[in-house]
Structure formats: C-alpha cells, structure tokens
C-alpha cells in the first residue's frame, strides 16, 4: 500500500474510504479519506488514526515506514470514531509511550473504549511538545467538530494538522489540493462546511482571529479528511472566513415537493419572480435533491423559499426531512417565503412559515396557498411572492 512523504520525515499513512455514501445523513457521493500522519523524528509519533474498518490499511502503511518497534507518541486531535475507531488496534500494534490529547478527548476516549489504563498525557492550548528536531504546538478547537477537538501545529515544518476543519469527504488517489479538479475540491469543501461546520461558524471566526494573532507561519494544512492544502492555503482560509461570516449573494434556494404537480407549478412561477429581480436560483425539487446538497446551496444564498402541499394537516415527508436537518445546521440566509397547494385543511404554508421563523429567517411575504390547482391569477400571485423575496434580498444586499 502506498504511503506519501508530505514533508521531510512526515508521512501520510491514512486510509481511503471509496465506498462511503452517508455520514450522519450527509450524502458523501465521492467517498472520504481518514488521514493519519507518521512523524519519523527522534520521537516516533503518529498523529490521529482511522475508522475501525480501515485499521489494517493504517497499520500496513505505518509499518512500511516504521517496520519494527513501538511508537513514542500517539497524538489524538479528535475522539470521533472515524479518527479513533482503530485505536485499540494501534495501541496493540505500536504500544505508544504516551497518548497525547485534550482532557475532553481523553474523557471521550475512555467513555468509548473503557481504557483508563492507556498512557494519556493531557495538553491544552499553548502547550508544546518536542519530538526531537521539531516541536508540536497544540491549539484546542472546541466544537470544531466536538468539544475535544484540537489542532497540532508542527512549527519547523509550518504544517497545521487541522483534524476535521478544512476537510472534504472526497476519496482520491491524489493527496494534495493542486493535484485534483479545483472546482470539485471547492465544491466538496463547501459541502463539508455546510453539513458539518456551519453551526459552529461563530467559533470558526474566533479561531481564525486567534490563528492570525498567534502569527503561525502555515504553508500546509493537513485535515483528517480529503486533500491536503499546500497550494491553496490562503484560498481555503478565505473561504472559511466568508462561510463563517455568512457572506451571501443574490441567490435563492427554492426547495419544494409536490403531490399532483400544483406546488411544482407554483414553484416555477415563484422562481420566475425571483429571476426577474436578478437572483440566481437553485430549484431544489426534493424528489431528486438530497438534504445535504440543499444545505450546500444555502451556504451562500440570501434566501430560502419553501413549497409543499398539505398532507394530513402537515407538509410532505421529504420537506420534514429537510427541515429537521436544516434547523440543526442553522443556515445563515435571512429572507424567506412559503407556498403550497391544498384541498381542504391547508395548514402547510403556516407551518412552513413557522419553520422559517425558527431558523431566524424573515418572511418577505405572508405566504401563499392555492386550492387544488393554481389558476393564471394564482400563478401571478406566486410570481409576486418571488418578486417580494427578490426585492427584499436586493434591499438587504444594497444592490
Ligand atoms: Fe471526522 Fe468529527 O470526525
């Protein structure tokens, strides 16, 4: 199995998950990688491990670089099982003298594996550790992605090992950002941010400020998923700054489902109104769109418009799925609207408006419901709804 020296005496020894298609409800159509790095200094140090099903890949790769003997240190930047599932195998094979991690990570690892006798050594922000010719500096990054998460910065190598941050679920044979299709790389980075990091955007902004204040000289960022950033370090830092600060454009996501076609027809008229005001529109027919792709499009959208007919005094199940998922991720768009057809009760639009309110999205229109099948007049009103949302977006953006 291939390994790769990413910096002098620092080797990628992770695993590639070509088949992964779901990560907590996030569709990972390009698979993923679990990155781990072996540092061959005076202290032989493994940074992170991999998912349990990939233990053999990690052990085989690491043994190519360290054919015999034990590790001195194992650094755990994060306790989630995609990075610690192989810990029992690593501990058996390499018997590290110290397992270095944050206190929250130690607690989580003990709770997952029940192994209080592993040789934990707790570190916090500002602590550093000499490996011999190089020093590792630790920066806790609580909630990015779990309370235990941290970064490890290899000072002399200018290498930031960033755990989940700056990652992508993107399985490739290449390991560096400049070796793959750039638009796919940024698309997968945005999808990862929108589906994993988004609710913690406030913390991202603080972290970016702290990293700047610490004057870390970073020339490579190695996340625990996907490609390693060596050419586009400023670009991914800038993108995280933009995403975290909720920088949106004149764009709307119209997410809708339909029963007999009436709500879809209404959606087309709403979209027409939005376009007339100069907005870029993503028409997300939920019969074909995955919830995680809707979230990716929402990342830079100013407006979120919802359409569903009434079914059993509620809205359609695909809409419920999307809203349950989106609510937790806290999208930063701020203008909304809702529409849908009905036969008798007609509750869906009121409920969709309430859902938008829960996400702190302001309504540009009181909402529009149409009995059974929209008439030409009804479609004009749908277009008006789109125009109202579009105008409010343009007003907000000062365009
Ligand atoms: Fe890649 Fe939060 O684990």
Task: Describe what this molecule looks like in 3D.
- It is a single chain.
- The chain is of the alpha/beta class.
- It is 36% helix and 23% strand.
- The strands form 5 sheets. The protein has a 7-stranded mixed sheet. Strands 17, 18, 19, 20, 21 and 22 form a 6-stranded parallel sheet that branches. A 5-stranded mixed sheet has the order 12-13-14-15-16, with no helix packed on it.
- Strand 17, helix 8 (262-276) and strand 18 form a beta-alpha-beta unit.
- Helix 5 packs across helix 9 (291-298) and helix 6 (201-213) packs across helix 7.
- Bound molecules: MU-OXO-diiron.
- MU-OXO-diiron is lined by residues 78, 80, 82-83, 145-146, 164, 224-225.
Helix content: 25-40%
Q: List segments where confidence is low: pLDDT < 50 over at least 5 consecutive residues.
A: none
Structural class: alpha/beta
Can you summarize the main beta sheet?
7 strands, mixed
Strand order of the largest sheet: 1-2-7-8-9-10-11
**Shape verdict:** elongated
Write out the distinct hetero groups bound to the structure. MU-OXO-diiron
Radius of gyration: 24 Å
Query: Would you count the extended β strands for me?
Result: 22
Strand content of the residues, in percent?
Answer: 15-25%
| Mean model confidence by pLDDT | 97
Instruction: Give the termini distance in whole angstroms.
Output: 54 Å
């Amino acid at each position: 199995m291939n390994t790769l020296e990413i910096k002098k005496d620092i080797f990628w020894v992770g695993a590639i998950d070509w088949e992964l298609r779901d990560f907590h409800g996030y569709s990972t159509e390009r698979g993923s990688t679990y990155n781990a790095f072996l540092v061959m200094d005076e202290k032989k140090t493994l940074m992170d491990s991999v998912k349990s099903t990939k233990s053999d890949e990690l052990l085989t790769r690491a043994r190519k670089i360290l054919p015999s003997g034990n590790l001195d240190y194992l650094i755990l930047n994060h306790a989630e099982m995609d990075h610690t599932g192989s810990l029992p195998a690593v501990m058996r094979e390499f018997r590290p003298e110290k397992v270095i991690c944050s206190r929250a990570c130690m607690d989580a690892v003990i709770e997952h594996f029940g192994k209080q006798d592993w040789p934990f050594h707790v570190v916090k922000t500002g602590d550093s550790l000499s490996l011999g010719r190089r020093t590792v500096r630790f920066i806790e990054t609580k909630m990015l992605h779990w309370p235990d998460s941290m970064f490890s910065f290899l000072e002399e190598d200018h290498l930031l090992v960033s755990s989940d941050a700056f990652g992508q679920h993107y399985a490739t044979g290449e390991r560096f950002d400049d070796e793959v299709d750039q638009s796919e790389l940024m698309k997968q980075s945005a999808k990862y941010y929108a589906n994993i990091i988004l609710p913690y955007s406030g913390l991202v902004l603080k972290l970016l400020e702290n990293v700047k204040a610490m004057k870390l000289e970073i020339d490579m960022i190695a996340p625990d998923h996907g490609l390693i950033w060596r050419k586009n370090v400023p670009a991914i830092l800038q993108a995280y700054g933009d995403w975290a600060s909720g920088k949106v454009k004149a764009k709307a996501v119209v997410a809708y489902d339909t029963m007999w076609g009436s709500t879809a027809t209404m959606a087309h008229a709403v979209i027409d109104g939005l376009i007339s005001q100069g907005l870029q529109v993503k028409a997300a027919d939920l019969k074909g769109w995955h919830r995680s792709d809707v979230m990716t499009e929402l990342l830079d959208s100013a407006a979120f418009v919802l359409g569903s007919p009434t079914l059993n005094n509620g809205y359609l199940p695909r809409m419920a799925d999307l809203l349950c998922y989106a609510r937790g991720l806290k999208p930063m768009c701020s203008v909304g609207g809702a529409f849908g057809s009905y036969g008798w009760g007609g509750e869906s639009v009121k409920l969709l408006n309430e859902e938008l309110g829960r996400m702190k999205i302001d309504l540009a229109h009181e909402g529009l419901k149409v009995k059974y099948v929209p008439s030409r007049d009804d479609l004009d009103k749908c277009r008006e709804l789109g125009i109202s949302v579009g105008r409010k977006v343009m007003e907000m953006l000062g365009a």
